[in-house]
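Model it.
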Amino acid sequence: MPSRGGASGAAQARCSNSRDSGARTLEHAWGEWSNRPSCLDHGLIDKEKIMAFSLRSRVVLALALLTSWGLCSHADLSLPSIFSDHMVLQQGRAIPVWGTAEPGEQITVGLNGKKRSAKADADGDWMVRLRKQKAGGPYEMVVSGVEETVCFSDVLIGEVWVCSGQSNMQWSVSNSNNAKAEIAAAAYPKLRLFTVERTVATDPQKDCKGAWVACTPETIPGFTAVGYFFGRRLHEELGVPVGLIHTSWGGTPSESWTSRPALEGEPMARGILDRWQETLKAYPEAKAAYERALAAWQEEADKAKAEGRPQPEGRPHPPQGPGHPWTPSGLYNAMIAPLVPYAIQGAIWYQGESNAGRAYQYRTIFPLMIRDWRDAWDQGPFPFLFVQLANFTARKNEPGESEWAELREAQLMTLALKNTGMAVTIDIGEADDIHPRNKQDVGKRLALIALAETYGKNVVYSGPIYESMT
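Modeled.
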């Protein structure tokens, strides 16, 4: 069965009437375009006059015609990359399926014997909401337009969770405790993984790069360890397929994962936006200074290498600026917006280190982000489970100031939001490593919260939580 990779890189199998979207030579493009009946019928070209032009004129005109190809071409039926072979769709709720097609085109989506249809709007966007279904599969999902049909195979229905945050969520199975044995045992054909490629955008995007894969010893090493150990426990306890959507980026603050309208509507976030504008204004000068410093460092490094000495310390770091992952809303636009409104059960989150210097502010902007995601998905207050920062640095004998302690308090206060849960990890961190290798217990503790609070299982999921002091 032929397949075509879209801009997202995910393969979509064309079941019939597939159009070749590959690159064309100028000669082929010219010949095909000038003979299209729709173009001739509408009087867009006079073929006899065109053939009389000089070769140079024809080439110039051909380039102009290629620029306006969309006037006569039929838009491909396509879906974003979150829809691919091996995907997991959320059980027990309506399933949104969306994409692009020719404006006004009738689109029909079929899954497990059920079909729904919709028409593409004036911009070519369409959405179908399939009726809720029970866990099961594998199935084939068929999306049909007037001239094309896109087929997705090995589709499961089960539980879908988003896994997001910074480096401790990004941390891979291959770098976790007992990695060799964990990888060898990672044969779970009904546990599926989707990783969003890391990128930044100034505006909300409609698609991202990624594809669903089954969990195997070959696919698991680079996947989020916290997400994997969380999803594995759910899969084992619930006995249904589980899909994990991994979208994280190390060293990033929560405001990068929050939409621009949400930040602009929160007075506490005003300073974040103002500081970023100042950063952008200063960027050209900062970039020039960085390039000078890097050139000087490289000269010293080359000299040290030639003399057999160690490389000098203090390699300059590029300054923040356009395209930097600290861009407010930059990661929301590129790595969250493309996932919406894919039906999910909930989200797990491990982040906070990059906000520790502004812990008091985190009391506001972290709950803001959670509400923002819930508003975007429009599924109500879906479960949002997060990890309280683990212990880090050596234990002190006397009380003292701690940004991390204040950040943990901000995380604790976020439990005031409905349907949130917090996994305490103060006992499993490492004094000299901000990335503790024990991700098994982190995933397990998040899973226990979900099993108890989301799925109604009779399990102990938390120790005593501080409430007040008199």
